[in-house]
Amino acid sequence: GDSVTQMEGPVTLSEEAFLTINCTYTATGYPSLFWYVQYPGEGLQLLLKATKADDKGSNKGFEATYRKETTSFHLEKGSVQVSDSAVYFCALLNTNAGKSTFGDGTTLTVKP
Amino acid sequence: GAGVSQSPRYKVAKRGQDVALRCDPISGHVSLFWYQQALGQGPEFLTYFQNEAQLDKSGLPSDRFFAERPEGSVSTLKIQRTQQEDSAVYLCASSLITENNSPLHFGNGTRLTVT
Question: What integer is the mean pLDDT of A86-96?
């Protein structure tokens, strides 16, 4: 079945540091890939997405590129802010199955 | 409403009690999903609907779990004879349709604690 593996956290960075959160997946067919973010006290919300190989999703300074050859979708940001502190979830949508599969989440804490 | 609404926000049940969790999706969203999230883990798929049709219930952990969406809008997840292992956050999400560019819109979840 489909699966998503994220790098284990928690991750603690200083403000303006470079961020990478690794995500790899296993899926049949051609899934779409997503990063969702959950800020403290809030529900999960979409951060960015990519629907086919080599697509780059971007939002709020975050980027991720759909790499079919390495089955990866790593999240990056060049300069994190305290307000980026949250839990980040990598997910895939298998349209054949109609459902999304999530990783376990990575907690990011950014210190001033 | 502007987003997906879930109620109650918190629910404490004694072992053996039945509970009902409600989800009000974004108006016009065809697809509705239920996920279960244990502490420190990602959401695990339970079931999903397209309009009123339940297309996949493969993630429901036992026959104590039942979901419905009779008019293709509001959905209810019912858990009968709750057990301690049912304690988790139950997330509802909706999307326009299950195409590969339709992200999920989540509610804030219902935190169920079974004592």
Answer: 90
CB atoms within 10 A of CB A78: 11
Report A:40-99 residues touching B (Cβ under 8 A).
42-46, 49, 51, 89, 91, 93, 95, 97-99
pLDDT in tens, A1-49: 899 999 888 999 999 999 999 999 999 888 999 999 999 988 999 999 9
CA distance A82 to A66: 27
Verify whether the Cβ–Cβ distance B108 to A43 is below 8 Å.
Answer: yes
pLDDT tens sequence across B22-77: 999 999 999 999 999 998 899 999 999 999 999 999 999 999 999 999 999 999 99
Residues 6+ apart with CB under 8 A from A38: A44, A45, A86, A87, A88, A89, A105
Question: Residues B18, B33: contact at Cβ < 8 Å?
Answer: no
- What SS3 class is residue A83? helix
What is the C-alpha separation between B10 and A91, in angstroms, rounded?
26
Does B7 touch chain A if contact means CB atoms closer than 8 Å? no
**Chain B partners of A91 at a C-beta cutoff of 8 Å?**
42
- Strand-pairing partners, residue A20, are A76
Helix (H, G, I), strand (E, B) or coil at B30: coil
* Interchain proximity A51–B104, CB inside 8 Å: no
Q: Which of A43, A106, A44, A98 is nearest to A74 (CA)?
A: A106
